[in-house]
Structures are given as structure tokens and as C-alpha cells.
Protein: DNRLRE domain-containing protein
Organism: Nonomuraea rosea
Amino acid sequence: MLVAAFLVPSSPAVAAALSDAGFFGRWSAGAWTVGPRLDYAYAGLKPVENAVKAGNYALAKQRLLDHYRARPAIEAGGFSHTTWPGALELTTDHIWTLGSGEVYVKTLTFGPGETTVTADVTSSINSGKPGFFLMSRYKDAVIALINSRSKGSGKPALRLTLADGSVRTLTPTHDTYIWAGKPLNVYGAKYYMQVSDVGVGAFTGETRKAYLRFDLGGVTAVKKAELTLTGTAGSAKDIMLYGNAETFDEATRTWDTTVQNTFSWQGDPGGFDWELPPGADNEYLYQLPRFSFAGPLALEYQKTGDEQYARTLIGLMTDFIKDADGYDADQGAGSYPGNLHASRRLHNWIAAYEILRKSPSLTAEANTAILKTMNRAGLYLQVNVNGTPNKMQSQKITLLHASVYFPEFRAAPAWRTDAAGFLSAQLDDSTYADGGYKESTDAYLRGYLSQYVDVVAYMRRNGITFTATAKLRQLARFLMDQSYPSGYGPAYGDSDSLDLRSTLKKLGELLQDPELRYVGTSGASGEKPAHTSVLYPDTRVAVSRSGWTAADSHLRINADRGNHSHPDELAITAYAYGRPLLPDMGTFTYSTDAGAEWLRHTTEAHNTVEIDDKPQTSTAAGGISHLISNPAFDLIGANTESSAGARHERSVLSLHSGLWVVSDRLKPVVAGEHRYEQNWHFAADANPSISSGTEATSTAFATGANLTIVPADPAEVASGLSDGYYAPRFYSVENAKYASYVRTVEGQTTFDTLLVPSKGAADTSVTVERLPVGSAPSYEATALSLNGGAGVYYKSWTTKAPRTFGPYAFDGKLLYADAGSIVLVDGSSVERAGATLVKAPAAVKDLAVTFGGDGTVRIDGSGLTASTDPAKAIAITAPDAARVILNGQAVPFEREGAIIYAAA
């Protein structure tokens, strides 16, 4: 029998580092006085056990390395990243870049004396990075002076060869440099941009970096791009050139106002300290210890057999252990700097270890240090519980991989049971009852589901049961419903717009779901979803969708909350004719940069109403009150009390023929005057303008779809185009204009807004005029005349009642009518100039009548049945009717003059 000490790993030593006895165990007087973390019953570990029992830990380490070198391959999983900026060339010197916002291009050499260099930057330009920055490759005392755009000659130049063979040469719109030793100074007007770096650490007071930005507005189809720079240096100076996608103003950029993602510890004997450099994006602390660069290094070693890549990665792993082992008394470097980061690192280390275990560069000492850390990481991931779904999921997926890859670890069976059970149960914890995801971001949901695709397949390959297939399907359909008709995500919350199709396709294959497969392949296989629009009442999200092709329309409105959410309740994102016309403006970074703070933490940065210049809170009441869905239209109602000053109610009529009407009602809960700012945001290249008088905002994209936004009360709002930001991807940000409509009033008030998408140029002829509704104020009932009376819109905010407006009389809750259609909700009678348009014996929940030019009349509505009995059927004026389609089926009809009867 084993003594109790054998069953429990030993207590940590006084020092944070795990002792050899703590890992291998200690054998004395025929018993284990310190229990080993290895299972010596596992085949091949007998030589290790013998060495330990003999007290020879040096031999035990060598025998353990021998074991792993000889062990057959075990599935190790994949890397989080297979590419990483500068990984192969720069990591040896501890030069690090966070994320994909700054991408290393090449190293340029200036000096001695004046030098002109040209670099091919085609890949940078074509990946949406029209900016560049320059940084010293080595820590030396040489300062390079690079000519700026203010210089009389030798200015920076970007030469673009276009697909048609023409050539354009651009100079920067902004260029400057920043200086760590003078963090508040602005250098945008200088003739030279200085570049230097010297000393130890991430930077010193002598560190200077240069930045350039080019305006590529109107430039498309770049075949080749070349950047030419002229500079001087006292002796040869190597400078790294990076492409980036960050906008900046040379008149205000300083060291202190620049969020930096690239730092160098080149030549520092201690190397990278794995901590957050001052001024870096907050994610720097988390991303680098995840070892995202391990994949490129290990895969390059696997491909080439060049030991420099193995030595580099092994050296980084052991350097990390040395620096971080004091972080935690129990798990040491295994848990630094916490949950998700530890799991990502262990996942990358397992995959790397499978490649490195046979490398001659892996010593017995380094091997043992790495295995100790991975063992401690597994123990940490087993016991740590985090409330954020994606973090916990990642932890348990990694724990499952560790249990399979390291059967030599005594804890492996417990890890396997814990992880498998958790991954099946967690879907209940991470989703609402309606199947929506508890984190308010589609990018994180995509990643969450992608990991389930991989881990469920992994579990099946390794004989591990996954029991939550139905819940996984429900969540997959939630992602499908959020997706734009193009297959991309709407980028709500902390997100960027990602292509969701590959994930949906894989989910469709894994779950044998033809609808997921259809959307994931853009209709190439599977079956078109049976539904279009959808309401998730618990998640507090509604989506109005006209169909599932790229040309269809899509509107999303939310009152959702949770991790990674923004203060954006009742915000709208809208897509039509192949383009997001009202996008979410993105995230940029998790730093305290002014742009990122505005994007993530203000209500102003979203397509909703900001109240009293303050961001919404995330704890007040609110939700989506209803979605009335009809094949011809959707009506969505939502409300929020997330602003202290007033309750905001928003109603959206979405006509699938291509029109949206948004009605906002603001009800103060605090007496006095309140400021209400309704904002509409656009992509950076939208080129919006406002028409004087109507105050309508129109976009002017160079090609493709556009949007016109028409307010109902132009004389009663202060309108204008304001400066904001648009971050289409993480670590990428551009200046962007947005339309703002402001009312400052006491008491209740409304905004009524017509949104008109166009396939091509925006329709600037659209007009909206408010119609009086008796003596009722607009916050009780609102009516609009559209395009000089060609159409009408009416909404009752209160109990329905017979009301007149313009030539119309109606007794329901909502009406829209134009020459080709009539839409009504909860009503029975519509008249125009005293003549009946629609007359039903009782109120109809929802009804849409569409008049085709060929005499076809389409009738769509809930609970309707075919009937030609005038006593029961709905009377519809349709003098040209030749055929009637009721809810998709041809039905007979009877005519009495201009009126037909076909449905009851």
C-alpha cells in the first residue's frame, strides 16, 4: 500500500521554485516521504524511479529526458498562433510586438552620412496599414535623423504602382517622432525624425521612435508599394520598419499620448522581464506570457531543423520560469499572471514540447524545469475557477490536453475527469435560457465556439464523452443569427468584424446541422435556415433579417450586458446591399488611450441616444419588449433605464423591401432640462455630409451601397458631423465622422428618423414631414409624411385608439403605407381620404399587403386563413388584383368593386 504522502503532491518549498524532491519525490527507508508528481507505474519511467530512489536527481533528470525523447508521439494540440510579428528574426533579441497592429517589415540601414533607402511595403499597404513607424534594431549610442515631410528635399515618399499600370507618389499627411526623455514634447513640425535607443530595459530616456501616416483615400488595387526614406547617421544605424494602421495627429502626438505595442530588451543581460512596460497597452502584460510566438519558432524548427530556433524557444521558456517562478507560492511560474494567460501558455508549451523534446538543445535540466512548470500549471488550472466563460473554457481545454499528453503525471486522470465534466456542463453556465451567450461580444463568441469545435473532435478521438451537443447547437445558432448576410460578425462589444463562416461550417459538420452548414458555406451546401428574424429575450437581443444572401438586409438592436460589453443599450447596427451601413465602431485596444476609452466606455460612440453627456450604466432595467415578425417587415420594441436622467424607449420598423424607421421616446425620471444626443456612426471612408434645411445625413462611399438618415424635426434639433474613431480591427484605428442630432428640453420628447439604404449613391431626395395627430404630442402618437405624401408612417406610444393624421385614419398601433404596400400592427381599419384601404372584422396582430405590378397581391400575417366571406374576411382595396398569395400560398379571392376578400 502507498503511504498518504504519496497521494498528495508535496508542499512547496520555502522558495517559490519547485524542488527536485517536490517533483520527483523523496524515497527514504523504503517509503516515499515526499510523494512524487510522476506516476512511476507508467511504462518507461522505471529508470527514473530507480534514480530517484537512489537519491540521484541528476541521473533522474537525464533518464526523464531519455524517456520523453523515446516516447511515441501523443496528440499535443495546436498553437494559438502560427505567425507572430517578427518572431523568427527578432525574438532572439527580446524584441516584442503585441498583436497585429504593428507588423515588422524589414530592417533598414542608414549612415554613415546621408543615406536614401527604399523598402517594399506592398504587403503592409494591402493589409490596411498605411502608416509606419521606425525603431532602433540595436541598443547603441547612434542617433539617426530621418527627413520629415517638413524638409525641403528628400521627404518620405510612398510610390504606388496601381493595377492599371499608373503610378502615384504620396508624401505623409502626418509624421513625427516621440522621445521618452521628453514625454510631453511635440515634434511634428521638425525637419527630422529622430530614432535612437540605448541602455537596458524596455526603454530609457534616450529612446526615440518615428511615425509616418499616408492618406490612401481613393486609392485602390495597389500592385506594388515602395517607401523611400532619406536619413543621416554618424555611423551605420540599423532601424526596424513596421507597418501600422493607427491614425494620429503630428500636432499632438507625444510619448505620453502614444500607446506603444513594440518594445526592445535587445542586449539586456536579463532579457525581457515579462511585465508591463510603462505606456504599453494593458494587454501586453497578458499576451506575451501566453507565448503566442512559440508556434512560429517551433514550427520553423520542425521545418528546417535549425537549432537556433529550438535554442531560442527553450531559452525563452526557461527565462520565463526564472523570472516568474516567484509569482505564486503554490504554482510558481505555472500560474503567472493568471487564469486565461496560464492556460494559453500551457497549451502553446505542450504543442511546442512535442517538437522540442528531441532537440539536442534541450538539456536534462531545462527539460525538468519545463515539465515542473507545466505540471504546476495543470494543478492550477484544475482548481482555479473563473466566472468568465471564455477564460474557464480555455483553462479546461488546456487541462484536458495536458491530461492526455502527460499520462506520466499522477494528476492526469483527475485532470481528465475534471476537464471533460466541466466542458460539458459549462455551456449551461455560459448561456442564457434562450441560447444566447453571456459575454456581449461576437468575436469572443466565435472564439468560444471555435474552441468547442476543436475540443469536441479531440475528445471523440481520445475516447472522451461530450454530453452537451444540444446546448452547443443552440449557441451555434445564436452566432449564426448575429451574423451579417455576408457571413461576417457585426462586431458588437469588445470585438472586430470577423468572418464567421468557417466556424459555422465546422459547427454544421460537427453537429450535422444543415442550416449552420448553409450559412457557413454561403449557401453552397446544407439547407437555408427556416427562419430569418429572431428575438433572444433573455440575452436581450433582436435581429431583423430579410434573408440569408449577401444582398439581404440585417439590423441588430441590443440591450445586452455581460463581460466585454459596451455602454450601448438600444444601439443599432445595420447592413444592406453588401455593406455595413451603421457599424459598431469597434474597440482598438484595451489600453487607456483616448480613442480606445471613447470607443469602449462612452455611449456617444454607439448608434443610440446618449443622455446628459454620460455613459450608460449596466445594472438598470431594460430589455427587448417585443419582436413582431412578418415576411414583409419586423417591428422591434426595446427600452432601457441605463441612463440616470431618463428612460429611453426605441421602436424600429424594418421593412424587408429596404427601409428602416426608428422612433425614440425619452421619458425623464429626474425633473428639469435634459440633453439627448442621437448618434449615427459610419466607416472611415463613408464621407458623410449633412444637407442644410432637411438636416439629412448621406454617406458617399466611392462604390457600393450608401445610406441616407432623415430626421423628422430638423428645425428642432442641433445637427452636425462630429469627429470620432473607427476601429475595424484590434490595434487599428482611423478617424471617422459621425452624425449627431441633439435636443435639450424639459419633459418627454422624441426622435423619429428614416433610414434609407441605397444600392448605389445615397438617395438625397428623401423627405420627411411631421403630421399632427389631433392634439396628441409626438410622445403619445407620432405620424410622418414621407416623400411629399408618397408614404406615411404612424406609431402609437400609448393605448391604441382611432386617430387621424394627414389624409389617413387608423385605429391600431402602427401603420406604414405607400403606393406598393400597407403594413399594420394591432389594427383593423385603415382609410385614406375617407376611402377604405383595409377593413377587418377584428384587430389583426400583424398584416402586410404588397401590390405587385403584375396584379399579384401578397398578404402576409399571423393567424390568417383563406376566406372569401365578406362577413369574416379582410376587405382590401386592390382594383388591379389578378392573383392573391396568402402567407406564400395562392388562394381564391372575391371582388366587390375595387375591394377584394381573400383572408380572414
In short: The chain has a mean pLDDT of 95.
